[in-house]
User: Fold these one by one.
Assistant:
Number 1:
Amino acid sequence: MRVFVTGASGWIGTAVVDDLLAAGHQVTGLVRTPTAEAALAAKGATPHRGDLDDLDGLRAGARAADAVVHLANKHDWADPAGTNAAERAATATLGDALAGTGKPLLLASGVAALAQGRPATEDDPSPFHGPDSARGGSENLALDHAERGVRAVAVRFSPTVHGAGDHGFVAILTAIAKEKGVSGYPGDGTNRWAAVHRSDAARLVTLGLTGAPAGARLHAVAEEGVPTREIAEAIGRAHGLPTAPIEDAEAHWGWIGRYFAMDLAATAKITRDLLDWTPTGPTLIADIDAGGYPG
């Protein structure tokens, strides 16, 4: 299968490209820089220079492929409106390019805000609709294309897709802990974050390309919920820092504080049963304890 991957040089994208190639697929990856282009070509994939604002390039990449995996996102926390607008425009362009073909479109999404007071499940619809909502309402926009002859599938990633070299949320929390001299946790630290190892997330994407039906919501979740106190304690152990409760999360952590204070637990039973997906990678705490987050 010829697969067009956006975000092919990103944290999740590089692992997805590797897994797709190992499964025998041909991969064309969207990359922005000469360095990323060379790295992708060295793996045996085909670089496609461009970015999320190059809608003509996205359209061409999608039309030339048998499937699309859309992982790219600007993640500009200083301009969330711009990030959401770019995500919506890219999703609409990719979906329109595949309309009527029956080809797969797997779109990256997340588990945040899906449920209150319990772990989110794949049956929980995304509450985000329209261009002004989180991620530009891209999950619902993509799934709407199932009615237009696209095998649209949402892949909801855990808030932490972890592993050695991760520069995401846990890396940011680690850097803040080292800067402030304390590894904090919000409130009593009982709120939880779902977690998945990068290799397991990549494998799920590959399985979803061939095994997930149109309209499916997949959960890239290996651990239903790791208490934030345990995350903070692991960071503290790794760097010789004390741990302590933090009452004002945003004052202490900045923008990431509001996410660290959320309960983002989720299950993946439906996904596991549907795709026979069994995560085998290390746990989040094991990765932190092994020195995966030097900060």
Number 2:
Amino acid sequence: MSAITIKLLAERLQLSTATISKALCDSHEISANTKQRVLALAKELNYVPNAYAGSLRGNKSKTIAVLIPEVADSFFSQALNGIEEVALAKGYHTLIYLTHEKIEREKAILNALAGGRVDGAIMSVTVETDSIDHIREFNRQLPVVFFDRVCEEIDAVKITTNDFECGYNATRHLIEAGCRKIVLLSVSNSLSIISERSKGFKKAITEYGLNEDDCKTIDCTEDPMHNCQLIKDMMQGNNRPDGILATVEKLTTEIYLVCQQLNINIPRQVKVVCFSNQSSAIILNPTLTTITQPAFEMGRAAASVLLKLLKNNTLILKEECAVIPSTLNIRNSTTGYVSEV
């Protein structure tokens, strides 16, 4: 059987090939009724578009890039699912690049992509991204949509969550649970999300009148062994905290491991809240109180707006930005008591 072509669809429906092409691309120029007729016949005849030919005609690759720091973090893996769901539904391919939290790798990736291999990019910047010239240069040529970790200085669409409120609410929850010496575990002063979470933390500390000398920020690194030692020194110190707020998911393991090694009971001796999307939070002992981000929804929103920009580059970027709220899920690491096993 010969391949089903746009020309054949046009003949069957007595429409022009241009109309068929625009209808398949969901163009605003084509009425909803005509689109429905075209899509119905295309489905009936199992029409498969020639993506390569289409990209040549439109000078488009039908491919988008996604730059993320890592995939081990459940937030990014869930966000990728949201991005791919939208991209696949619109006939786009997704190229996923891992920066491994290195700014030089981020620069190299964007430089390689600027030549037209992709139509645009969705990205979450690295912990080292303290200069943005490389992103600004890429954005002059192709559209960029930021999600989670954003660059405020660049005029682009940003999909974020309410990090300030989450930092505040998590700290307030620890205070209302009885904590008076709360430590914020940070990973980067330059990341927008960490900065906002830290501001929320400090607001709650001030608002509730806690001693700021007892409520400090400790800067962790990308090295798990180093972080374990930092947390161990903190928990063995003279002014041991009774509450910990971890700004990133990867610190969960180190906190629980150190407390286990030092025979420190969570939550009796220290209460713990983590920004985390990991499904294992409900099977940890004790179950972990988390700030759970809408990762899948943020991924969907980022992909949707990028594809929207690719169809209409006159959109007002600020009006396309979105803040999708996160959720405080209270579990036993802040409220319950567990038997020591």
Number 3:
Amino acid sequence: MKVFVTGASGWVGSAVVPELFAAGHEVTGFARSDASAAAVEAMGARVLRGDLDDLEALQEGALHSDGVVHLAFRHDFADFDAAVESDARAIGALGRALEGSGKPLVVTSGTPALAGQVATERDRSSGGLASGREANSDAALAFAARGVRPVVVRLPRSVHGQGDHGFVSRLIAIAGERGVAGFVGDGSARWPAVHVRDAARLYRLALEQAPAGSVLHAVGDEGVFTGDIASTIGAKLGLRVEPAAPETFGFLGALMGLDQPASSEQTRALLPWSPVEVGLLADLEAGHYFG
């Protein structure tokens, strides 16, 4: 397949592109900057220049592809609503370009946050940051009625691995700045997690095999206690571990105290996918986050 990938040079995209190549697909990566274009070319992919506001370029990439993996998202937590709106416009443009083709459109969202309940692929978020992207997922799934094969891949709070600069890396940086590794409440809040290479395999399978309307969970660890994350960070940095106020963690504060485990049982039953890489705590123990 000729696959158009937005966010190809990003954290997850840089694992998805090699996964697609290994399966024999051709890849065109969407790149908004010279640095992103160079990274896409270094992976061996073709480059299409543009950004998420360039709807004509997005449609061009989709029209000349056999399927789309949409990973690009502006992770601006200072104006998250604007990021969600930009994503909605991009999904609409990609979907319209694929109308009537039967081609796959794989989009990205987050696992639902349901306090005290293990979220499944059938669940919806009760609020928070994930709810805005969920509405965008609904818009993507609606293209099934217009001759597209839409699939939603929900990512957990941590997509980890060597080179990760996401939430866990931020927690490590905050611990280093404060001289204390912290958690919110009693540390019993759970975060789902997945290794980036496991996530990449699921995106490929979603593109190749998932039925129209599928909602998939890229979840390896169903729920890692935030207290255990803090304890592992503290041990690796030689710092004490103690509870802290949510505001200590900036935009992560609200997530740190929210119990939000998620399952991938239905995904594993639908597709030949199961995680094979190490879990989050083992990845932290490996040391590369602290190099």
